[in-house]
Amino acid sequence: MRDMRIRSIVATILEAPTIRRHKLSNTEIAHQGFVLVRVLLENGVTGIGEASTLGGPRWAEESVESIQAVIEKYLAPALADQNAMMFEANAVRMSKAATRNFAAKAAVESALFDAVGRTLDLPASALLGGQVRDRIGVIWALASGDSGQELEEAREKLRLRQHKEFKIKLGFNAPDADVRRLQHLRAGLGDDVRLIVDVNQAWTEALCLRLFPALEELGVALIEQPVPASQRDAMARVASRTRIPLLIDEAAFTNTELASVASHACGSVYSLKLVKSGGLLELKRAAGIAQAFGIELYGGCLLESSIGAAAHMAVFSTLPKLEWGSEHFGPRILVDDLVAAPLVFEDFEIHVPSGPGLGMILDEDKVRFMARKAGSK
Ligand code: MUC
Ligand code: MG
C-alpha cells in the first residue's frame, strides 16, 4: 500500500448535458465540457480529478482539447514515477513542464490528493490542514435571461430549501433589459433574498457609473467582475464609486495577479477557483493572500460536477474564513452527475464529503456514456 509512485495519468474528455441553457455575457452552454483525470499509483489505487471549462476556450483560455493534450503530453511525463504524496514538489514539476494551464494542473493535483487520501484512508481536507467546517452554504445561478422562468426557478429552489441566495448572470442582454430583469426578480422574491450579479467583464466604466445606482436601489449584495479583467484602473475607479462591494473574478488568476488587484483596490471580495489557482495548495495560498489584504472570500465555481466541486470543498472546508460561502451548484445543473453518490445538498448547504480522498466514486457507466466518442468534435 505504501508505494505511492505514479504509474500512469490518463485524461478523458466528457460532455455532460445541462438541465437548461446557461448564459453568460460571452458564451452560452447547453452541456458542460470536462476532462476527467485518472492517476494510477504503483499500489494499485486510482485517484480522480476533473478540469472544467465553460463554452470551450471562452471563459478562460483552456479548452477540453488543450487540457487533455497538456496533461498527456507534458504533465504526465513530468510526474512519471514521482511519489504522489510530494504535492509541492509535484506542483513545481508541473509548473516547469507548462506555464499557466491552470485547469489542467488543478485536475491532476486533485487526482493526486484523491489517490493519496484513498491510500491513507484520509479525506483530502485532512491533507490540507483539516476541516474547520463540514457544511458550506451554496448559491444558485439564474442564467436563462428570461426573468419569468428565473423567478419560477428561484422560488422552486427556496421551496426545496436547496438555495436561498442567487447569482444573476448579466451582460448578455441590453443593460436596461438587465435592470428590468433584476427589478422583476427583486419584486417577486422580496427584499430578504440575497441577490448577487455577475457581469463577466461585459460593461464599460461609463456603463457601470450609469447602472450601479439602480443596482444599489435593488439591494444587490455583490457585483462580480463588471469590467474587462485587464482594466484594473477602471475596476478600481468603479469600486470606489459604489456602496456595493465588487467581487474579483477573472481579473485575478495567479496569486501575483491577486496581490496586484488587491493593491489596486479593484474589489473587496475574491472568488476562489481551482481553474484560476491551478491547484489545491495554491488555492489555499490565494485565500491567505486575499485575507492579508483584508479581502473577503467567496467560493467560486466553473460549473463542476461533484468531482471538481468536491476538490473545492476539500480546500474551502479548511479555510479559517469563507465569508460568502460557495456557489458550487454545478452538480445540480447537470442532467446527470459523473459519480455514484453526488455531493449532498441539504438546507441550503453542501455537506463536505468525509470519505477518503475527494470522497467521490466514479459511475463508470455514466463516464462511458459521456466520454467524447473518437472522431466527434
Ligand atoms: C463565473 O464567471 O463566475 C460560475 C457560475 C456561473 O454561472 O458562471 C460561472 C463562472
Ligand atoms: Mg464570475
CATH architecture of the largest domain: Alpha-Beta Barrel
User: Largest sheet at a glance?
Assistant: 7 strands, parallel
| Largest sheet: spatial strand order | 5-6-7-8-9-10-11
Question: What is the overall shape?
Answer: globular
Element-level helix/strand string: EEEHHHHEEHEHEHEHEHEHHEHHEEH
Fraction of residues in helices? 25-40%
Bound molecules: [(2S)-5-oxo-2,5-dihydrofuran-2-yl]acetic acid, magnesium ion
CATH homology-level superfamily of the largest domain: Enolase-like C-terminal domain
Number of strands: 13
- Return the CATH class of the largest domain: Alpha Beta
Q: Helix tally? A: 14
Strand content: 15-25%
Radius of gyration: 20 Å
Layout of strands and helices, then pairs:
Layout: E1 6-24, E2 27-41, E3 46-52, H1 64-79, H2 87-97, H3 102-120, H4 124-127, E4 135-137, E5 140-142, H5 147-159, E6 165-169, H6 175-189, E7 194-198, H7 205-217, E8 222-224, H8 232-240, E9 246-248, H9 255-263, E10 269-272, H10 274-277, H11 280-292, E11 296-299, H12 306-316, H13 330-333, E12 345-346, E13 349-351, H14 364-370
Parallel strand pairs: 5-6, 6-7, 7-8, 8-9, 9-10, 10-11
Antiparallel strand pairs: 1-2, 2-3, 4-13, 12-13
Helix pairs in contact: 1-2, 1-3, 2-3, 5-6, 6-7, 9-11, 11-12
Q: What does it look like?
A:
- With 377 residues, the protein is an alpha/beta fold.
- The chain folds into 2 domains: 6-122 and 363-370, 2-Layer Sandwich (Enolase-like, domain 1), CATH 3.30.390.10; 127-351, Enolase-like C-terminal domain (TIM Barrel).
- The chain is built from 14 helices and 13 strands.
- The strands form 3 sheets. It has a 7-stranded parallel sheet.
- Strand 1 and strand 2 form a beta hairpin.
- The longest helix is centred in the N-terminal third of the chain and has 19 residues, at 102-120.
- The radius of gyration is 20 Å and the shape is globular.
- The model has no long low-confidence stretch (mean pLDDT 97).
- Residues 198, 200, 224-225, 249 line the site of magnesium ion (MG).
- Magnesium ion binds next to loops.
